[in-house]
Automatic annotation (TrEMBL):
<protein>
    <recommendedName>
        <fullName>Pectinesterase</fullName>
        <ecNumber>3.1.1.11</ecNumber>
    </recommendedName>
</protein>
<keyword id="KW-0964">Secreted</keyword>
<keyword id="KW-0063">Aspartyl esterase</keyword>
<dbReference type="GO" id="GO:0042545">
    <property type="term" value="P:cell wall modification"/>
</dbReference>
<keyword id="KW-0732">Signal</keyword>
<feature type="domain" description="Pectinesterase catalytic">
    <location>
        <begin position="94"/>
        <end position="385"/>
    </location>
</feature>
<dbReference type="InterPro" id="IPR033131">
    <property type="entry name" value="Pectinesterase_Asp_AS"/>
</dbReference>
<dbReference type="InterPro" id="IPR012334">
    <property type="entry name" value="Pectin_lyas_fold"/>
</dbReference>
<feature type="active site">
    <location>
        <position position="253"/>
    </location>
</feature>
<dbReference type="InterPro" id="IPR000070">
    <property type="entry name" value="Pectinesterase_cat"/>
</dbReference>
<keyword id="KW-0378">Hydrolase</keyword>
<dbReference type="Pfam" id="PF01095">
    <property type="entry name" value="Pectinesterase"/>
</dbReference>
<keyword id="KW-0134">Cell wall</keyword>
<feature type="signal peptide">
    <location>
        <begin position="1"/>
        <end position="20"/>
    </location>
</feature>
<dbReference type="GO" id="GO:0030599">
    <property type="term" value="F:pectinesterase activity"/>
</dbReference>
<dbReference type="InterPro" id="IPR011050">
    <property type="entry name" value="Pectin_lyase_fold/virulence"/>
</dbReference>
<comment type="similarity">
    <text>Belongs to the pectinesterase family.</text>
</comment>
Length: 394
């Protein structure tokens, strides 16, 4: 097994990737990021927030990973799942370049080349550009990584909606199938990728749900990725998931699903014009371990937003050490028209900051967590990370 410290150092030394079939080298390319001109959903305020996130990212990226190296020193070695250990020993790298100078021109062609029930890590090195593809990674193809260039991340884009994929058949509207990228396999990793759905922004209209990414596989991690859309941007469907340093944009329930996920150092940016909700978590039974935990994140953007509304009777969402801007409504949480849920949901806040963090106007069933109550939600142990989460490598 490759030591975790070595992987982190390797990643730090390869912030820029030379997109060649035969070599992976440092590249001192200082071009500005210009991959979001095709995003029809972003207004001026949203574009400004996104550019601020990109600038912070570029300035702080190396500092963060150096800090991670120092934190990893002296720690005990993680005991990874045996399947994951074996998969990481013998990696295969595939280069995708639209000009034909790589192994494949399209992401789908590269995925098709991977054998079913593969047991090794396949790293798809995706060169800068806009990829207009609808992608599904089937459950039989685990251990796949998407890796983009840090300074010029590739954009995978589409514009399907719940209505368009069923040709307007109201009885069959399918949010599940609207995703630009769907991942049904386990151990998926994405690094420096923009997932986008450019469907027109019509708040709350039936059939206009438009997912940028659906993640249904278990033990998936996303580093330095962007999820751009409006209604139902990120379908965090099911499984254990980790999101680090990601930018997630939308207007209505733009993070939703049944999963058990930990979001760290992420920007949650609203493009709502009126009132909307950031999360819609669907925990339906007390025995379910699912929930969303946000730590060291920020909630920014336009409109007025609830931090969450109860899609399920036992919905569970916690924000800790998070900056809540003035767009957060004083009550912060909604039971979604079903008053009985106010006694069954678990909505908590812990040591948050910003103009939207004042708990005075909160609904009476919102929880201001104690140190002890917050402990399960303020670390990667929330997603049982010691057995599967590794620092991203190329």
């Amino acid at each position: 097994m490759i030591p975790l410290l070595f992987i982190i150092i390797l990643f730090l030394s390869n912030l820029h990737i030379s997109w060649s079939t035969n070599t992976i080298n440092n590249n001192n390319n200082n071009n500005n990021n210009n991959n979001n001109n095709n995003n029809n959903n972003k207004g001026a305020n949203s574009q400004e927030e996104y550019e601020k996130w990109l600038m912070w990212n570029k300035q702080n990226h190396q500092h963060y990973w150096r800090k991670r190296v120092s934190l990893e020193q002296g720690r005990s070695t993680k005991v990874l799942d045996i399947r994951l250990q074996n998969a990481e020993i013998n990696k295969t790298r595939l280069v995708i370049k639209q000009d034909g100078s790589g192994d494949y021109r399209s992401i789908n062609d590269a995925i098709d080349s991977i054998p079913s029930h593969n047991t090794r890590r396949f790293i798809l090195l995706i060169s800068p550009g806009v990829y207009r593809e609808k992608i599904n990674i089937p459950k039989t193809k685990g251990f796949i990584s998407f890796v983009g260039d840090f300074m010029k991340p590739p954009t995978i884009t589409g514009n399907d909606t719940a209505a368009s994929v069923t040709r307007g058949d109201v009885s069959a509207f399918n949010t599940f199938q609207s995703a630009t990228v769907s991942v049904d396999s386990d151990y998926f990793v994405a690094l420096n990728i923009i997932f986008e759905n450019t469907a027109p922004h019509e708040v709350g209209k039936t059939g206009e749900q438009a997912v940028a990414l659906r993640i249904s596989g278990n033990k998936a991690a996303f580093y330095n990725c962007s999820f751009l859309g409006s209604q139902d941007t990120l379908y965090d469907h099911k499984g254990l998931h980790y999101f680090h340093n990601c930018f997630i944009q939308g207007s209505v329930d733009f993070i939703f699903g049944y999963a058990r996920s930990f979001y760290q150092n992420c920007t949650l940016n609203s493009i709502a014009k009126k009132v909307a909700s950031v999360t819609a978590q669907k925990r339906t039974q007390t025995t379910m371990t699912s929930g969303f935990a946000f730590m060291e994140c920020s909630v920014t953007g336009s409109g007025q937003v609830y931090l969450g509304r109860a899609w399920g009777d036992y919905s569970r969402v916690v924000f800790s050490f998070t900056f809540l801007d003035k767009l957060v409504l004083p009550q912060a949480w909604s039971y979604w028209g079903k008053p009985l849920r106010n006694s069954t949901v678990y909505y908590g806040e812990y040591r948050c900051s910003g103009p939207g963090s004042n708990m005075t106007g909160r609904v009476p069933w919102a929880r201001a967590l104690t140190d002890q109550e917050a402990q399960p939600f303020i670390g990667t142990h929330f997603v049982e990370a010691d057995s599967w989460l590794t620092s991203p490598s190329i």
